[in-house]
Give the backbone structure.
Amino acid sequence: MSEHALWVPFFRAIVVFVYFLLVTAVLIWAERRIVARMQARLGPNRIGPFGALQTLVDGVKMFFKEDVTPAMVDRPVFVLAPLIGVIAGFLSMAVIPIGGEVTLFGETFTLVVSDLNVGVLWILAMGSIHVYSVFLAGWSSNSPYPLMGGVRASAQMISYEIAQGLAVASVVIYTGSLRVGDIVAAQSGDGLFPGMPGWNAIVLFPAFLIFTIGMVAEAGRPPFDLAEAEGELVGGFHTEYSGMKFGMFMLAEFMNVVTMSAIMVTLFFGGPSGPTFGLPDAVAWVMPMFWFFVKMSAFIFFFILLRGALPRYRYDRLMSLGWKVLVPVGLVWALVTAAIVLLEEQTVLTTEVRIGLGVAAAVLVGALLFVGAAPEDADAIPDERDPQDDAAQAPGAADRAENAEEVGT
Amino acid sequence: MFEEYLPVLILAVVATAFAAGSLVVSSLVGPRVPNPTKLSAYECGNEPLAEIRTTRFPIRFYLVAMLFLIFDIETVFLYPWAVVFRSFGWFGLAQMGVFVAILGVAFVYEFGRGGLEWD
């Protein structure tokens, strides 16, 4: 790495920055179009082909909007909160390879900002820093709805962070390395039999499930978008924000979708690896970028479908899903993974035994999941309601929610 | 070491410049027409409550924060172990099993006492 010319680190950082910014912009447009279709509407279709430039225009518009800073806020923190969100969002992409090796002006390097030796920890750390943005925004606003939204959102995010951390831990146990490059390389071979991809999503299926649920909750997306439940909390933690600061929160939220999809693809779906169809070397370097983009888009599409299809979850159910189901299952699965890895090390297992073990482990974890997920009072409605929730039913909440919708939710 | 983190540093600078730059540009070109209603807390048109910092929120959130600390530390301990446990073999797995079991007992107790219920 040290023999690279000085421009290489700059090139890597800027390529990744622009790449994820563009993908986020396209995501915002794609989501508005797809959700519109699912609701029998047209969606933005005026600016550019199929309205594709709508996001750009919205971004420019945001610059010319009044940036109201209410009198009661804690100014420095109020300004800092949206910045933390966006910066942490960009930084978490630093370890994700968006393509394979490329050769440019005589320099050969991988398309990643930097393949840190603690890459997995870096991803988790940046996810944790994002919680600060949400909580500080809610707290510094010094206003009831943002405070409730901020507290709720941070409780939700830290709960699912543990479940997610445990799911990622089993990936680390299986690979034996915290370096993202090693995790990608370990998945590039064949799976149990030739022709099957060696993706972690197949081998570590329960961890994959936990991570999928966790990533939706972590990104604060429907059906887990309780932090900004428009019906009761107006806009949640960013109620008092307007203008470009609000735009920063929106950008951070959508960027989170892209980051989470990218992390999912990297940890569980082999990142940029994929068949090159025997293309000549001159063209073959495009294929990893292509595969990464296709896999990531599939997960982004999944996020959009969830938003269009599912109603919002109830907060008590959300917390009990996280703590009673995902955390114990994640812990047990991490230990089961370790046991299977040790078995593999010491004895040579045949494919049948491996499949048998895998199915047995999956059934065990599935049973745990089923026991935990079936509370006796599944249909009971909580008798005591939070007075704050009642307060949020006041008129005006709906109007504000509609405004947020127009700005580009 | 520095070579590895230099691109990350550049990305951090670019991201900070982008985010802070957007806010600065917006504050330069955006209009500024304050009025008392705009500057007060948004409470759906009601008169704002006195001081929000003194309002209470459910004790459950503190409980979640405490639980988070315990389990996050457990997860943090799991990571270095996950990297090196192959060299410890079954003994290492048993050790981690004991560690998880100790927390597991507390977890089951809390589960049983209804500490995870969200009323």
